[in-house]
Amino acid sequence: xxxxxxxxxxxxxxxxxxSWVLIIILTVVGLCMIAYSGIALYxxxxxxxxxxxxxxxxxxxxxxxxxxxxxxxxxxxxxxxADIFRKIKNSGTPFMQNVIKHLYIISALLMTxxxxxxxxxxxxxxxxxxxxQHRILFSGMSFGVVLSLVVLSLxxxxxYGTMLQQESDETL
Length: 172
Known about the structure:
Shape: elongated
Number of helices: 5
Oligomer: single chain
Largest sheet: none
Distance between the termini: 29 Å
Structural class: mainly alpha
Order of helices and strands: HHHHH
Number of domains: 1
């Protein structure tokens, strides 16, 4: 049994159709991350001194800060990813310079979040409490760094694919 052969135009149309779903999902989840960050920030700011041993203290002030910080960075990553699929929807191909640039941006956001989140959490704890009582979670930090490097690798692969796509388009 032979596999169906698609023309380049048919593949591009399929890519455009399927991109809508991912654009919607990534945008909605990104908005949810912003809402989550807003709720975490609101709950941290509305705690008064009488409730000092309430939720902020049980989770830790630096933990609350990390949730807000990470939520905003994750939302940014999701919005950039949604923009990648918008560009694919408009052009019909993922092999473009804009997509590569967006993958580099995602990699930089992930690396920045992985490194800055624990550092800033410690700084916030020092400012708020005058001492360091925070553990850096290297497993979470290392996951962010590894994920950033994987996205960076994908950007390099897409760069090669873009060169092949240009070469193929020029020979036709």
